[in-house]
Sequence to fold (557 residues):
Amino acid sequence: MSSNGKQPTRRSLLAAAGGAAGASALGFAQPALAAPGGGPVSTQTFAATAILPGDRRYADLTVGLNQRWTASPDRVHLVSTTQQVVSIVGAAAAANRRVTVRSGGHCYEEFVYHSDVDVIVDMSEMNRVYFDAQKNAFAVEPGANLGDVYDRLYRGWGVTIPGGMCYSVGAGGHVAGGGWGLLCRRDGLIVDHLYAVEVVTVDAAGNAQAVVATRDDTGHLNDLWWAHTGGGGGTFGIVTRYWFRSPNAVGTNPSALLPKPPADVLLSDISWSWADLTQADFTALLNNFGTWHEAHSAPGDTAGLNSFLALNHISNGSIGLLTHITGDTPNAETVLEDYLDHITQGVSAAPLQPSANSSDHGPLGNFLVPRRWSWLKATHFLGTSNPVMTNPTLRGDHKSAFHRTRYTAAQIATLYTHLRDGSLDNPLAQVVVSSFGGQVNAVASGATAQAHRDSVFKVLYQTNWTEAEDDAVNLAWLRGLYQATYAAKGGVPVPDAQTSGCFVNYCDIDLGNAQYNTSSVPWHDLYWGGNYPRLQQTKAHWDPTDFFRSGQSVRLP
Fold:
């Protein structure tokens, strides 16, 4: 019922959503756009396209990057404007149709491509990146993939945002989940630079509307902005635009409003053969990685360094260490050398020698002498060099953990055993331990919805494969590895002195299953800790009917 006691009509639901002419009714004006040099940005749009079953495009638009997840919706809407999203959401709410949203298609679980979905809103054509003079901030539409965002910001204005490494991830879900990347220890998380968000919401009467919320707002509007700094996608509404400006930025010069990336970076890629590694070597590598990060994760401490320890399954043949350090780090070569000396201390196995075949070992072909590349070249290369990022045929499963301190001896022994488990033959099964902390930890855990602000490294447990017939063995291996690693905690990395919880962007439905999580900590506290009650209150105000929902969306209080 509407506030005047009358049933809302289809006309009233959609009155503000008739296309470009409806902009004033929505309560916001068209932004003042600027391209590099001050010229206009193209605002060309098209009528929202409905892709129905039987259309040759339908199959490609109803499956995620993770090929395990497919859907059979009534239609897929390709949209190009906020007004179109308002119209589509309003009509779906009036007809009680289940809606999900796709930006880049990288969701690890079936939250978008679900058997119950009726309408998928595909944001891939809403992909502009531009400077909005009215907001004095950079606008990024949710369908823009990260590779294009970095190109546009850097080529146009010499700035960047510290987002993820994979080029094809869409901004929509990446930002909402509190995305991180190679510059996180220097510049924080991507949400630490989020100034505003535009969201299409549905009120208690079923009315769809576009709302702009900024970090300068108070009350419910500030809650809506805050919820998009790590609260995850698919909970509060459909994001149609983000604006970025660093909190400490001053003035109106676009080139001074976001971090400037380094001109160049040093890259090191070292691999060791499983055939040469002893258990003592493996233990030393993990211990050394942990102790270095425990000692160097305060804000400003070696902030330009980010490193990945890729612990591949034995069927891969090797494990590797990829290290990225900004070229503007004082004495960068020496800092990198000291870091590598620390990580390899006590490791008797010799690194693999450089190979002409880059697929043999690390993503860069395994080289012992670091390479200095321009930041943009390194960003392009690292974003496209991993086959897991670029292979459109893969099925997968993923789990995560934030660590405040290193792995225990028992945990390292568990990893060693499971990574050498002969029941699995999959070179793409791995545990990736990644640098965290630094500037990320300069922000209070409650200042953003992303609560993990005192961890020193982050872990991605994953396996990828191609055939449905291999689902069971891969899922069993990953679940067994994860549960055994955190067996003393109930099978999950509960918040305690050693671990902080899990990363919502690496969503894992098993966290809510008592078969796999035997701890007393519910899935939502693993993601958001003490921030969950505020997220619930925000949900109650902005999505009181739970119109936007998934298997792990924020629940109504």
About this structure: The longest helix spans residues 279-295.
